[in-house]
Design brief:
alpha/beta, 2 domains, ten-stranded mixed sheet, Tripartite tricarboxylate transporter substrate binding protein
Length: 329
């Protein structure tokens, strides 16, 4: 029995061991993991947690260092990594901003193609974008809010954490999906000001990633009435999705992916992917991310990651085109 268990364990580890052997000379120095945003946010938490767990899986002396390079909606850090050697010693945390909304909104000023100029490695986590209303709002579900907006064109305002944010694009998608709603968008300078605006009732509704709103919603400062994800979320199981509210195909989420410079060696990509998946499958990692409203993804492949990024970018481009948005810097 022991021999059989050892054989099964060896078989299960074979893909990871094979990828490890193919890139045996790597890493021969520190692997830098760039976060293109300031320290302290949910993206920073995820990257540091994953890097800490990944490093031992890359080799007995492997080291990963997390570096924050913020600016221009993540473009500065992303372009920095894009220009580095594609030898596997520099990787990037990609988000809807860096690989979706900003390139879609500002194609002439974004210095890279989010699909063609990077090597896709792994999907790390996802979180729904949620629809929230002030605590004294009469609207208890998305259907009621949409019906009121249709009956009162131009009378409402709604908030996001900034022009070009994934919350902004989710709001525009609602307008389009519901047949051309008319409401004024108020872009705030981040998630915290949006939370304050919802708490004070400065806007009729707002869109933001779940992690930014969950704690305040649980404290009763405002109410979450809709999920942008295809399925309900375990943190708020009573909150319906926008698809359940009658908006077929509505999908709005934030996500984090691991990418590197274009044309990284496939063997190194395979090792990074395997290490990321193993790190994200750890129960303590999943639990820690869940408290931040992030659902860990531990089964992605480089090919699936590339297809995911391409599909998300195409979706954002479609929203920008249909909503006729232009946010040139």
């Amino acid at each position: 029995m022991l021999t059989r268990r050892l054989a099964l364990a060896a078989f299960a580890a074979a893909p990871f061991a094979s990828a490890f052997a193919q890139g045996a000379a790597w890493p021969d120095r520190v692997v830098s993991f760039t976060i293109p945003f300031p320290a302290g946010g949910s993206a920073d938490l995820l990257a540091r947690l994953v890097a800490d767990r990944m490093a031992p899986l890359l080799g007995p002396s492997a080291r990963m260092v997390v570096e924050n390079r913020a600016g221009a909606g993540g473009v500065i850090g992303s372009d920095y990594v894009r220009r580095l050697p594609a030898d596997g010693h520099a990787i990037l945390l990609g988000t809807p901003s860096t690989h979706g909304t900003v390139p879609a909104l500002q194609p002439d000023t974004t210095p890279y193609d989010p699909v063609a100029d990077f090597t896709a490695i792994a999907i790390l986590g996802r979180a729904p974008i949620v629809l929230a209303v002030p605590k004294d709002s009469p609207h208890r579900d998305p259907q009621a809010l949409i019906a009121w907006l249709r009956a009162n064109p131009g009378r409402a305002s709604w908030g996001s954490s900034g022009s070009g944010s994934v919350g902004h694009l989710a709001g525009e998608l609602l307008n389009l999906s519901a047949g051309g709603l008319q409401a004024e968008h108020i872009p705030y300078r981040g998630g915290a000001p949006l939370v304050e605006a919802l708490t004070k009732g400065e806007v009729q509704f707002g869109w933001e990633p779940l992690g930014s709103l969950a704690a305040a919603a649980r404290d009763g400062l405002f109410r979450i009435i809709g999920m942008g994800s295809p399925a309900r979320h375990p943190l708020f199981p009573d909150v319906p999705t926008l698809q359940e509210a009658g908006l077929a195909g509505f999908a709005a989420s934030t996500w984090n992916v691991m990418v590197g410079p274009k044309a990284m060696p496939p063997a190194i990509v395979a090792r990074l992917n395997a290490a990321a998946n193993r790190a994200l499958a750890l129960e303590d990692v999943k639990a820690r991310l869940a408290t931040a409203g992030i659902d860990a993804v531990s089964d992605s492949t480089p090919e699936a990651t590339a297809a995911f990024i391409a599909a998300e970018f195409a979706k954002f481009k479609d929203i920008v085109t249909r909503a006729r948005l232009n946010l040139a810097r």
